[in-house]
Amino acid sequence: MKSGKKDNMNLKVAYIGGGSRFWAMNLFRELMLEPRLGGEMRLYDIDKKAAEDNAALGNMLDEISDHYENGEKQPNNDRIKNNWTYKAVDDLAEALTGVDFVFISVLPGTFDEMESDVHVPEKYGIYQSVGDTTGPGGIIRALRTIPIYEGFAKAIKENCPNAWVINYTNPMTVCMRTLYKVFPEIKAFGCCHEVFATQTLMCNALKDVLGIEDAKRDDLVINIVGVNHFTWLTKAQFGDIDMFDVYRKYIEKHPEGVYKYWGEPSMEQVKFNLFKRFGVIAAAGDRHLSEFIPGYQYLNSPEQVKDWDFFLTTVKSRKEKMARQFGEREKYLNREARFRVEHTGEESTRQMLALLGVGDLVTNVNIPNYGQISNLPLGAIVETNAAFRYGSITPLLAGEIPVGVRSMVLRIVDEQETVVEGALERDLEKVFRAFVNNPLVKIPMDKARELYKEMLENTKEYLTMYDLSQIK
Amino acid sequence: MKSGKKDNMNLKVAYIGGGSRFWAMNLFRELMLEPRLGGEMRLYDIDKKAAEDNAALGNMLDEISDHYENGEKQPNNDRIKNNWTYKAVDDLAEALTGVDFVFISVLPGTFDEMESDVHVPEKYGIYQSVGDTTGPGGIIRALRTIPIYEGFAKAIKENCPNAWVINYTNPMTVCMRTLYKVFPEIKAFGCCHEVFATQTLMCNALKDVLGIEDAKRDDLVINIVGVNHFTWLTKAQFGDIDMFDVYRKYIEKHPEGVYKYWGEPSMEQVKFNLFKRFGVIAAAGDRHLSEFIPGYQYLNSPEQVKDWDFFLTTVKSRKEKMARQFGEREKYLNREARFRVEHTGEESTRQMLALLGVGDLVTNVNIPNYGQISNLPLGAIVETNAAFRYGSITPLLAGEIPVGVRSMVLRIVDEQETVVEGALERDLEKVFRAFVNNPLVKIPMDKARELYKEMLENTKEYLTMYDLSQIK
Amino acid sequence: MKSGKKDNMNLKVAYIGGGSRFWAMNLFRELMLEPRLGGEMRLYDIDKKAAEDNAALGNMLDEISDHYENGEKQPNNDRIKNNWTYKAVDDLAEALTGVDFVFISVLPGTFDEMESDVHVPEKYGIYQSVGDTTGPGGIIRALRTIPIYEGFAKAIKENCPNAWVINYTNPMTVCMRTLYKVFPEIKAFGCCHEVFATQTLMCNALKDVLGIEDAKRDDLVINIVGVNHFTWLTKAQFGDIDMFDVYRKYIEKHPEGVYKYWGEPSMEQVKFNLFKRFGVIAAAGDRHLSEFIPGYQYLNSPEQVKDWDFFLTTVKSRKEKMARQFGEREKYLNREARFRVEHTGEESTRQMLALLGVGDLVTNVNIPNYGQISNLPLGAIVETNAAFRYGSITPLLAGEIPVGVRSMVLRIVDEQETVVEGALERDLEKVFRAFVNNPLVKIPMDKARELYKEMLENTKEYLTMYDLSQIK
Amino acid sequence: MKSGKKDNMNLKVAYIGGGSRFWAMNLFRELMLEPRLGGEMRLYDIDKKAAEDNAALGNMLDEISDHYENGEKQPNNDRIKNNWTYKAVDDLAEALTGVDFVFISVLPGTFDEMESDVHVPEKYGIYQSVGDTTGPGGIIRALRTIPIYEGFAKAIKENCPNAWVINYTNPMTVCMRTLYKVFPEIKAFGCCHEVFATQTLMCNALKDVLGIEDAKRDDLVINIVGVNHFTWLTKAQFGDIDMFDVYRKYIEKHPEGVYKYWGEPSMEQVKFNLFKRFGVIAAAGDRHLSEFIPGYQYLNSPEQVKDWDFFLTTVKSRKEKMARQFGEREKYLNREARFRVEHTGEESTRQMLALLGVGDLVTNVNIPNYGQISNLPLGAIVETNAAFRYGSITPLLAGEIPVGVRSMVLRIVDEQETVVEGALERDLEKVFRAFVNNPLVKIPMDKARELYKEMLENTKEYLTMYDLSQIK
User: Fold this and answer.
1) pLDDT digits over D61-94, tens only?
2) In this complex, do B300 and C444 lie within 8 Å of one another by their Cβ atoms?
């Protein structure tokens, strides 16, 4: 008998950005928890040493890991197992040739560039709570990212045109749009867990308002429309229960907000305020949401941010966090610490399984708009639910972005389209047209030009493919 | 802790048409095979005695059943169990009050009416291979059915507006459209296994052309567009394999067709011919497909039907089959025979589980067009894939009906819309406008009127809500 | 002062098919009645002698013409004048180079080919009342026409890409689609006066039903949707008066139909019947309308045609009419008869004037669907109203084709699309797929193939660009 | 013979706001220049005395008028004539009963209210150049206007449901939306001459760049998309000449802008800048355009406005202008001055003629979106071209709003929809949700609430239908 199915234990996977310190470990965890998947994982990174370290770590996982569930160490580790051979590779082609899946999770530039992205605009009164998706920071970051993704798309077309490509890098929408523009037949999708947190918030609301305690994130059936980090629920239900009613009561009951730790404490006040204003449930963290909205509303000043009970993530804090993480991998490699394996909330293995023909899965995903959102342009990268089936991802019909928020969503679609076009054409003036129209850039156009030039200059080491003298 | 979820073992279900001899037994089988569902099943039928017999049978299932798998009797019956209490009820309201699910599977009129539906047109040179969906027979049957469904919709609105309503009766589209016209908020969907057979055909093709033997129906990921019994696959894949290529080769390899037993032997020649003509895979049996297409192409005469290697199902054969089935229930009730429990190919329990929050399921279903098919009118009942999740059915984006077949699909949509409107308005002239435009009615309009009158007259016992004297 | 406008008295116009005996004379008449237009008219025809005769005639018009109005000879001829220099040219390039307008009105093949188109199908029980647009005859005629138009499109692209191209040849839709497929930037539109007759019919109805006598065709404001010869009015008004009410009463008042001379007497019964069936006003002659509808309804047999009070135009009658016209041009050239100049009902000069910036004009026209009809595919050639302005034609928003007729319109759109594709690809099998699906071809597929082969064989002299042996 | 047409010399017209000092006189002028129209004009105004004065003036026009053309007095007045009887009426019903046309041109509130609308926001750093369409001023003005228009719509429905209603009042879109929401069958359209000025600008560009001097406004064929005062040309041509090229060169040639007197001198720099940014031609004055765009771009401060070479129209200047006009009517009534009759650039009489069946006219107009703009919501009041014909207005297919500006247009659509809904529901909180999202309101939300309350309080005399205490 000839089998038509892939052997799920002999998969070939490329991991671009495979030297990562954080995301790689979460992937290791999920893979060890999934006995139905295994094979060869090729780690590619511009920092080869980091990839090698991760490969070494990957290959010793069986020895150093402990199994946890719901925070508790399990009596033995017989339900976790490494089914993968990890190896670091020298170049992209070697990583990609003939693979079934490609993960991409890279940092475009370093935290020094990000420091310019996020903090230089502050001199102009422009505050960004994240700075990696939109706003002046997100746009400059996109300029660094797009040419890199242009290269990825070409290499994938060349070496593994049939592979499933899973992107985790921000700015998500811009990365995805680049992949599809350069290689339209690519089978790529972008994953982000931001929406999951909103499902969890709903579970909390259910408990708080109705006393229902056994709702799990997956039970919250939602309809999502929007673009990554600026997504909206137009329907949310727990069985027969309309979560819009529950959410309304939850908000009324908590005028002071509800506590949420997004790296730092936050009170979901932006999200609640958006619901009161527009009647739709925003499905991302407040730090992301606020960046898509006119800057004087939530991000006018550090004081205003404090009033809305969220915070500005500084690049300094990111650097500190990285420093803290720095020794972690080494400890594992030196067997100075045990590797804790527990579910991370990522869905990558569930998605892989569904694509390999093991069960249906419906989850949110970033892919081009084929009509799933009826009032956004076709081709724009949108985030909605999609069905993952054997060899196939099909969007669910998501319908319209509602009145009130739709023009803000359309605005970011146009910004990102212009930025991708401009970057692919190496036309910095075109990109500036998007820059100046960004809602956080609440300064006159001449000032905006000054800022743009300064930000380009600061990060020019990663912008060598552009002619910076274009910008006068 | 308060649970928010329904107790899947304490469900309340109404079964309209619960005196059925055939479909009821299949439902019994599926329910016995699903340990996660149980509760109370209320059987309602205009033949009360039949409902009582089925209730009695249902309640003794544990005693009389044997478990089979893939046709083989299992060593013991410990994997089957009846978790349901069956009871026959006197009226619709009693059946429906407060239920979670409603099954509807009824026969509008008797086989005597169907005899007129199917065979009277033959006097005019009009041949129908089924006669229950479209064609003169399907239209007259719709006239009987629509007022009954009008009553169902009102009763559901009154007694269980939140219940999930699952329809199995033909004409499927007409039944569903009536339910939604009369009670637009109804949570109804229509199920038909016709498409499954096409997935199985694909599995055969895979084996025959590529030697792949382990493909199961569910592995064939398809995109379906159309209306019930006239559905089309615009995409079909087995993992990376494009089934359109495989299907083309399969057809070339079998110029004489491939054998399929649809009650009688058939060779799939209509389906293959449609593929050659339109480049799309028809996803229903040849007897159904041919009824939607100009009558001189496949159904011009009994000889032509024979040439295309399918057949005309006579009502005589239906009556004979019914007679054969007649003693079956009695034998079980008298413990003269064992009840064989094996999977029947129906998806009802999988759908119920998904709607109760146990896993995601993607399958084909008949619901109103919310935009899932972009080039059919909104509101028309269409058949596409949909995602079943906890408390929710959402269509997958299905896209366009392709050139070539789209005008034929649109025609049947218009026919069915006109018939439903006409029947609800009790306007027989309006219905005649659809009748005369049916592609099987390949006779001049005056002859068509003669035929229409004769068919109405023959079945007038079930048409008392209309004024037959309208038709001159 | 530099003028930006074209000098309307120094226009250059190419007339392809300029040897015509009938249409040319009507053009002469309209041009003599329009003092605001003049210049050079280049006549091109494969029958060079005929073009020369027309040129000679054109140049002597001032001498031989008499002015008529409403059928009455005017006391003097001072309101008519020839402002044009006519010349016959040798080739297409010479005709086209640098012109402002191109008229195209050609006969693809001769009446002998048309004899096969129209009458050979009668052997198979297929009757065609015109046979030049659809039906087996229209499709074979399209096979002759499309390669010719392919050549026109290329020559226009080469020699006068900015010219306005006005087509009068049938099959209109097929000619237009070919022009746009081969040269998408072409500024072409197709004119047909069939709709005008329906406006005139409305005027008659106004008089008959309401006693209103001063309504002129142009006063009847209509909304048209459809494809050429199968167009429908979805709105018709005379000021505040809804013409749908008037038309309904008119039909009721005249159960025997109303007399209309379309070359032979006719009673508009098909048109009236279509209104009763579908509630929409058909806007073409009965002979055209009936050809788009299943053949057993109006064209089942010569007897049925007689019952519906219209007629089958024989090619014999066309030949006789041509013979009668034959001496006409010669008489004028020999000054044996006076040339009668009176309005012909054509709109060519009004359209030219509007395009040259003299006033706005709204009229019906055949152009690609840019969305003016919301439920037909983009790009299909449709007939709707459009605004003619200086240098510009813009469709009016026409909306939807109504339920009931929309599937028949979509069918012809698909037929014509398939025929154009097939002919451009020289793929006779593809064309056959359209042929067999034509609603007049009410015969089994094997018989249809026989007929197709015979019709191709009969007209092979004009089908040399195809490989006829393709069809087995 | 019974005539079906209206007698254009016996029209009945209602003029709401008929006491006007400015617009009334322009109407008088246009009517005197159009000999094909006449009848009875009923002037209705809340200032009855003003209406009586206008009526008296209207009835003496023949005696006191002089004819001018292109600024020059004509030798005699035989081409002007008053064909109208003017009369002031007491109430709306009397004005409207049985009329053919209704003009509406009113001032909601007085200039004192407008002073608050325009200048109070300046205390918050918000500058408005007009303040009657959007921005805080436009929104508060809308609150005064919508209940008035609600009354108009009801009175029209009651007294003259078939009349053509022509609105000139601002905020145009809000007025029109109210009319259609309250009486959906109303035959209303809104006229604004703002676009005409852009056509004139094109004529200047033609002369300047290409030396073409004979282009008239009407020769510039354009495609318009947008909402009133924020309209865009996506196509503009003068015959074969693409005006986008000409416009680009014109802008390059005039880096300092071009002079335009819009009440005060202006240099079209905003318009030119928008073209450079978005590649689309903005078709309104800079003072209007800038109000739809984030406030820090063109209206950040009086200095910035000066830098962009346009100006802020103060209400003081409006009051002064009114004072200057104040004695004018009295002088005519006292025969102390002659009434100068010359074309004013308004199109009202051309539109009336076309609607009465005298010729086709294509011009821009504000009506609901029936699909003429494909990417704006149906029902929104949009400005595009439409064809005026006998008894009918039909939009031309206008297509998409282009990338870049479409999200700004969608935003104003949503603002206006929310404001109309809020005002009709008397829900000031809902209106505030639009207020705070206005791009000129570049202040935090708490400050915005302060401003809103102050503006409501200032104008409360005209807001008695609302409960101002709703706003905390």
Assistant:
1) 999 999 999 899 999 999 999 999 999 999 999 9
2) yes
The answer to whether residues D33 and D177 belong to one domain is yes
Cβ proximity of D270 and D290 under 8 Å: yes
Question: Would you call B297 and C433 a contact, using CB atoms and an 8 Å cutoff?
Answer: no
Yes or no, beta carbons of C1 and D391 under 8 Å apart: no
pLDDT tens for residues B397-432?
Answer: 999 999 989 999 999 999 999 999 999 999 999 999
φ/ψ of residue B42, rounded to 5: -100, 120
Q: What are phi and psi of C167, to 5 degrees?
A: -100, 140
- Give the domain-ending residue among A282, A307, A332: A307
Residue C91 lies in a domain: yes
- For C129, list phi and psi in degrees, rounded to 5: -85, -25
Torsion angle of the four alpha carbons D50, D56, D58, D63, in this order, in degrees rounded to the nearest 10: -140
Q: What residues does B13 pair with on adjacent strands?
A: B41, B101
Strand partners, D227: D230
Q: What pLDDT does residue C1 have?
A: 52
Task: List C-alpha distances in Å: D354 to A279, C357, D195, D339.
Answer: 45, 18, 20, 28
What number is the ipTM of this complex?
0.94
Q: Tell whether C332 and C300 lie within a shared domain.
A: no
Q: Tell me how far apart the alpha carbons of residues A88 and C449 are, in angstroms, rounded to a whole number.
A: 64
Q: Confirm whether A173 is domain-assigned.
A: yes
> Pick from A323, A278, A313: which is nearest to A297 by CA?
A278
Q: Is residue C325 very low, low, confident or very high in pLDDT (cuts 50, 70, 90)?
A: confident
Residues of chain A scoring pLDDT < 70: 1-3
pLDDT tens for each residue of A160-172 = 999 999 999 999 9
Residues of D within an 8 Å Cβ radius of C: 1-6, 162, 206, 210-215, 219, 221, 223, 237-241, 356-357, 359-362, 370-372, 374, 385, 387, 389-392, 394-397, 399
Q: Does D53 share its domain with D160?
A: yes
* pLDDT per position as a tens digit, D212-263: 998 999 899 999 999 999 999 999 999 999 999 999 999 999 999 999 988 8
Report the SS3 class of residue C377.
coil
CATH of the domain at D341: 3.90.1820.10
The verdict on whether B254 is a catalytic residue reads: no
Domain assignment of residue C139, given as a range: 10-192+323-345
Residue C22 lies in a domain: yes
- Could you tell me if B217 and B131 lie in one domain? no
pLDDT > 90: percent of chain C = 91
Q: C217: which residues sit within 8 A by CB, 6+ positions away? A: C196, C199, C200, C203
Q: How far is D13 from chain C (nearest CA, A)?
A: 16
B214 and B238 in one domain? yes
Q: Does residue D89 share a domain with residue D163?
A: yes
* Res. D1 pLDDT band, cuts 50 70 90: low
φ/ψ (deg, to 5) at C204: -60, -40
Contact of A207 with A176, CB cutoff 8 Å: no
Is D430 domain-assigned?
no
**Helices and strands (H and E) in chain D: how many:** 19, 18
Total of domains in chain C: 2
Nearest CA in chain C to B418: C404
The answer to whether residues D184 and D151 belong to one domain is yes
Q: What is the mean pLDDT of residues D305-330?
A: 92
Q: Is the peptide bond before C171 cis (omega within 30 degrees of 0)?
A: yes
| Rg of chain A on CA atoms, in Å | 22
Please identify, among A307, A336, A354, the residue that sits at the C-terminal boundary of a domain. A307
Residues D52 and D150 in one domain: yes
Residue of A nearest to B372 (CA): A397
Backbone angles phi, psi at C190, to 5 degrees: -115, 135
pLDDT tier for residue B1 given thresholds of 50, 70 and 90: low
